[in-house]
Amino acid sequence: MRIAELYASLQGEGLLAGTPSVFVRSSGCNLRCRWCDTPFTSWQPVGTERDAAEIAAAVATHGLRHVVLTGGEPLLPGDAARVCAALRSGGGHLTVETAGSVLPPGADPATLADLISISPKLASSAPPAETPGDWRRRHDAARRDDDVLALLLSAPAWQMKFVVGSRGDLDETLRWLDALEGRAGPAGLPRRRVFVMPEGVAPERLDAVTAWLRPAAEAEGVRFAPRHHIAWFGHRRGT
Length: 239
Ligand code: SF4
Fold this sequence. Notes:
Blueprint: E1 2-10, E2 20-26, E3 48-49, H1 52-60, E4 66-70, H2 80-88, E5 93-98, H3 109-112, E6 115-118, H4 135-142, H5 146-152, E7 158-164, H6 167-180, E8 194-198, H7 203-220, E9 223-224, H8 228-233
Parallel strand pairs: 2-4, 4-5, 5-6, 6-7, 7-8, 8-9
Antiparallel strand pairs: 1-2, 1-3
Helix pairs in contact: 1-2
The chain binds iron/sulfur cluster (SF4).
């Protein structure tokens, strides 16, 4: 797996917000979100190939129980399941952050991670039509696969996080949840595990979206999730 960065910080989003964690950020993505906040893993991917044992050893040097495998799209590389197994072998807690559009060969959502954190990409995430590399079409074709999502939602523990910038985005989120209802595991699709997060990285933009999104989320029965890490550390790598 190609690794862009590996560092210790605090989880900034979702059910485990505030938890000290080691972040393993893979490089490479099958999508090209127009607002991607880690373009060094998608639009201009960087990083070094490391095998599962090397990654697990580097993580162990930080001495933290919680590990987050993120990206890019960490379920894209062929060795993703091996890396997950290595990261779980020490008995700690592994979160895998994925857009939920791909599953690697041999991956069993039941054992892949302790928490699967799924961030499906809405239609508004598409890059401009004139983007070189035919990325508008490729992004639109790849961003939503409800069969993959249904498999991931069968995992024992999951959360969903949608990046929302407009009321239209929130409405699309709610329609998508309705479409997935009944395809999740026996526990269904409880809305307390569904977060909506404001789109943006500039404080002014985050504040503007938060002002309407927080009450709208509450009214719709899903959870609002601040992007704590931007408030804590600013928008910069290694945090
Ligand atoms: S899925 Fe994530 S890493 Fe890939 S382009 Fe979108 S925001 Fe960036």
